[in-house]
Each structure stands twice: as C-alpha cells, then as structure tokens.
Amino acid sequence: MKAVLLLPLLLVLCSGNVVKNDNERDQDWWETTIFYQIYPRSFADSDGDGIGDLNGITSKLGYLKELGVGAVWLSPMFQSPMYDFGYDISDFYAVHDEYGTMEDFENLIAAANELGIKLVLDLVPNHTSNESVWFQEALNGNEKYYNYFVWEDAVIDENGDRQPPNNWRSHFRGSAWEWRDEVGQYYLHQFVVGQPDLNYRNPEVVEEMKNIIRFWLDKGIAGFRVDAVNCLFEVDKNLFGGKYPDEPLSGNLDVHPDSHDYLSHIYTKDQNETYYMVYEFRDVFDEFTAKDGLTRVMMTEVYASIQDVMRYYGEGDLLGAQIPFNFDLITDVDASSSANDIKYTIDKFMTYKPVDKEANWVVGNHDNKRMATRYGPSLVDGMNMIVLLLPGVGVTYMGEELGMVDGYVSWEDTVDPSGCNTNDPINYADSSRDPCRTPFQWNAEKNSGFSTADKTWLPVADGYETLNVEAQKAAERSHYKVYQALAKLRQDKVFRYGRYDSVAFNKDVFVFRRWYNDETYLVVVNMRDTDYEIDLTYFENVIGDVSVVLRSIQSPKNEGDVFNASSVPVVGYEGIVLKL
Questions:
Q1: 128-197+236-265 adopts what CATH topology?
Q2: How far apart are the first and last CA of the chain?
Q3: What does the pLDDT read at residue 25?
Q4: Which residue ranges make up each domain of the chain?
Q5: Terminus of the chain with fewer CB atoms < 10 Å: N or C?
Q6: Which own/partner pairs from 373-378 qualify as long-range (CB within 8 Å, at least 24 positions apart)?
Q7: Helix spans in 115-202 (H)
Q8: What are phi and psi of 263, to 5 degrees?
Q9: What is the CA radius of gyration of the chain?
Q10: How does pLDDT run across 105-159, given as a tens digit for each residue?
Q11: 3-class state of residue 216 by DSSP
C-alpha cells in the first residue's frame, strides 16, 4: 500500500520550543554520554551459578566501549535477601555476596575508569530490608533504630479484632502495614513486606542516607540513580490529630481492591518535603564535585505528573537532579500510537522543561516491557534514533541496542513479587517484571552465553540463537550496528548544540530536524507498515537534495543515496537519518 502526501493539511508543527545555541559551551560529561542500564543479575555470569555478577560486568566493559556507551548505571548490587531482587537492602555499605566482593567492585571501577566509562549506582532511600541490622535492632527495642522506621498502632474493630491503622495499599498488593509482636505496632511498607519504609522525618535517617551516598562516592562512582524517590515522605500525621488518614479511592473500578491503583495516593506520594530532601542530597553530590571538579550526577526515578517531575530539577537557587527521568515514551505511547502521539509526548517534556536544563529520553527499564515488545521489533532502530538524536541525554536499557524482546517466564519460574503476589497462575504475567529481566543474549551457545550453569535464575528468552550480540556483530546490517553508528553520530555538533523542531506529517510518519550553523539533519520514523512519499521542504530552509546518512535495517536505501527533499520515499517501519 502506498499513500502520496499532496497537501500539508495534516502537518502538526512543533510549538516552537527549541534548544538554543549556547555558543558551544563546554558540555559536562553527563550531557553528551549515553547511560546504559545494567540489571546485574542478568548481564553476565562469571562463576557459573546462573546469576549475573560484578566480574561478569567487568568482563564485558569492552563491549560497552565498542558500542559507544560512556556511562553505566547498575541496578542495586548491595547486600540483600533478594525478596525484591536487590531493592530490599540489608546493608547499604556492602556488596551482595551473589554478585561478588568489595574487591570485585573496586576492580570494576578501575577497569571502567581505564576505558573512560563512568559508573552510576542505584540508591534505594525509601526503605531497607526487614533483615537489616537497623530493623532487627528496632525489633529488639533499640530506640534509635525504632525511630528509623514508620510505626503506628492497630485499630480495633467492632469485633475486637486487630486491623491495620488505615487503608494504605502496598505497590505489591494488600495492606501497606505489617504487624510485629515484638513492638506491638504495625510498620509501614509501601513496597513488599520485607521493605520497611524509612522515616525521613527523623534527622538521623537523613544523615545516615547522606553518609551512604558519601561512602560510595568515595569509592569513585560518578553518581546515583535514586529509586522511588517520590515515596520518601508520608503526610505529617500531626496534621490529622496524630493518626495517618485513609487515602481516597482512585475511581479505577478495573482493579482489585487490594491493588495499589485502587487508591489515590495523596498522602503517601509527592509530598512537598520530598523535593527538598532531593535538594539536600544534591548538596552532598556537589561536595565531591567541589573537591575534584568531576560532576556527580543524580538521576531520579519518579512516575508522576509532568509538573511534579519538573520540580526535581530544582527550585530557585536550590539544585536537584540533573536527570529527572522522563518516562513518557514508556507510559504514554507504544506501538498503537500515532506519529502525532509521539510528537506530542516529546514536545510535552521539551515545553515543560526549564530552558537551562537538559531533557532526557528513556524507552525501557527493568520495570516495564522491553522497548521492542511495546513498539514491535520493526521499530527498534527508529526508537533508538529518537532516543539518541533528540536534544538531551539518552538512556538505554540493556538489550535495546539489539532489539531484545521480553522472554516467556512460566508461573513455576516466576520470582518477581509483582507476579507472585497476584496468586494467579493464569494472569500473573500481566503484573510480573520477570519477562523484561531475562538474561542478556551474547551468542547462540548454551544460555545465550550468559552463563555455563544448567539453570539460570530466569530462563533465557526464546530466539536467542539468532538474536544475540555475536550474530549482530557478524551481520552486514543489524540493530547493533545501527546503534553503534547513532552513538557516534550524536557526538556531532548538530546533535550536541543544535536546535530542534518536529512534524507529524500524517498519522504514521514522525520527522524531527536538528540544525546548527549551516548543517541540518532530518530524522524520519515511519510508525506503520505503509509506504509514503513526504515533502520535507515543509521545514523552513529545507530545500534541494538530502542524502542518507543512516537507515534502519528494514530500509531499502543505502548510505549515500540522494533524494530531492520535496519527494522522499519512506517505506513501512523505515527509520532514516538524512543530511541536507
């Protein structure tokens, strides 16, 4: 099927928000690099136990360097009982024993530094593990550590039975309160039962977390990604007569009453104090920057309204995160979205973003379906073009450079509490995060080259025999090679300093332009399996011929092909980078 666009009536031009030329200022390291997220448990297993580890990551740093990655963010590698696979930390100052030793971590840092790769860790400040010394000391009556957590008395119902203090729900279903006989009270856990919330109204907790930040920055890391940061504070119960109030119903009738989404979380998320805590954390990062001039970067994980996300950048003279994660390309759009949906989603972040701050682009992580699963394998190159060539910071979840898709994980093999807590062997996969965490696919050998073990902690995804690093390196054209070329291209001044605007040419074809001085590039992504002919002269000052610089693996074009800008053929699912 082929449609010829004759009139620009369907065009939707960018609102005019652009990235301004800043006279080629010296950009900081984090502004120009690619951040590559590694889920340590699934990247590379060096000792054959079926679980990824730090030495495995160290052994693969050369791959990341060749790919064009300049910074690695590791999901939590701290000591943990692994009820939530590292997000339940029992010792913030130690390396999880399945992942290695502190010496292994120091070797990883040294090897990364030799290759010019920065290392960023995952900070989990909202909660600890119920197996931590802090929590055990609280249970034993140690007042200092009792005050590290959030406790509340039971409510006795009309039958004389003990009930939780209120209706607050955990992210993992059921009450967010758990009773402990040792204390005679409930403790708050916004996540799994094994993750008691820390009490940020206690200055000692705040100082403890700052010391944890200092400890790892002293080890030589370049920053932290801060997990679930908008859950740090609950409402001050003193405003409600000393009792935490119930949260109102969300009105979402499609979810189970035990679901987190059943309530509107006006008392447990996005409290005003949270932003100022982030600003305090930033002060600690800047302590280290002041010593040696190397910026320590903070990335914040927040699923919230665009207005709330923007507050994490800072307010007035108070600095916050350099990178408040922009999840809109995960939460707002997918394979069913139109070109205008994509444009609107991008423009929204660009419009709200402070003009002196950097945007960032994220299409996947360890908590959501993989990019190639949500958008479809045909759009892998196009989505990577968007992430890496838009103005701002590009973030890649491991495997996106290959087009890795979610793996199948049976009910028997499911380990993620999000799936297990459904107690539903039929529909568990709708909630489980295991499919996006399956082992990395290195080659066609046993366990995709991830591990020599007879059984890996999660099964390797089907199709790894052909979808893997080794195969894509050997192929004449592959997602890996397109990604590698994009990583190199984004270092061009046009993509570092250039201005931006965009057009949805019709319901399927999204195009954005980057230009700087006398150079102009146009990035074309066709969201559907429909052929078009588009007129790029709709963009101001785009006239004459354009040449193909880079194309997706579906494209019939070759690098160097030349087309008149007024009539560029675009085939289904094609992604192309053109130069004027």
A1: Oligo-1,6-glucosidase; domain 2 (3.90.400)
A2: 28
A3: 79
A4: 128-197+236-265
A5: N
A6: 373/405, 373/406, 373/435, 373/436, 374/330, 374/334, 374/335, 375/334, 375/335, 376/335, 376/573, 377/403, 377/405, 378/529, 378/554, 378/572, 378/573
A7: 133-139, 143-146
A8: -115, 160
A9: 25
A10: 999 999 999 999 999 999 999 999 999 999 999 999 999 999 999 999 999 999 9
A11: helix
Gap between the Cα atoms of 576 and 580, Å rounded:
13
Distance CA 439, CA 415 (A): 14
Instruction: Say if residues 577 and 521 touch (Cβ distance below 8 Å).
Output: yes
Query: Inter-axis angle of helices 479-489 and 380-389, to 10 degrees?
Result: 10
Both structure tokens of 579: 């130069």
Q: What are the φ and ψ backbone dihedral angles of 422, each rounded to 5 degrees?
A: -75, -25
- Apex 390 CA angle, 387 and 393, nearest 5: 65
For residues 437 and 37, the answer to whether their CB atoms sit within 8 Å is: no
The two three-digit tokens of residue 144, written as one number: 């200092």
Determine the Cα–Cα distance for residues 139 and 117; give it in Å rounded to an integer. 42
In this structure, what token pair is assigned to residue 185?
């009270």
User: Catalytic amino acids?
Assistant: 227, 301
Alpha carbon distance 209, 189 (integer Å): 18
* CA-closest candidate to residue 72, choices 119, 121, 123: 119
The total of other beta-carbon atoms located within 10 Å of residue 428's CB is 20
The per-residue DSSP string of 243-270 comes to: SPPPPPB---TTS-TTSGGGB--TTTSS
pLDDT digits (tens, 9 = 90+) for 493-537: 999 999 999 999 999 999 999 999 999 999 999 999 999 999 999
Amino acid at 53: D
Q: Alpha-carbon distance 88 to 519, whole Å?
A: 49
Full-model pTM = 0.94
Instruction: Output the 3-class SS for 461-512.
Output: CCCCCCCCHHHHHHCCCCHHHHHHHHHHHCCCHHHHHCEEEEEECCCCEEEE
What is the per-residue pLDDT across 379-437, written as a single tens digit (0 to 9) for each?
Answer: 999 999 999 999 999 999 999 999 999 999 999 999 999 999 888 999 999 999 999 99
| Local structure of residue 20 (DSSP, 8 states) | P
d(CA 288, CA 320): 15
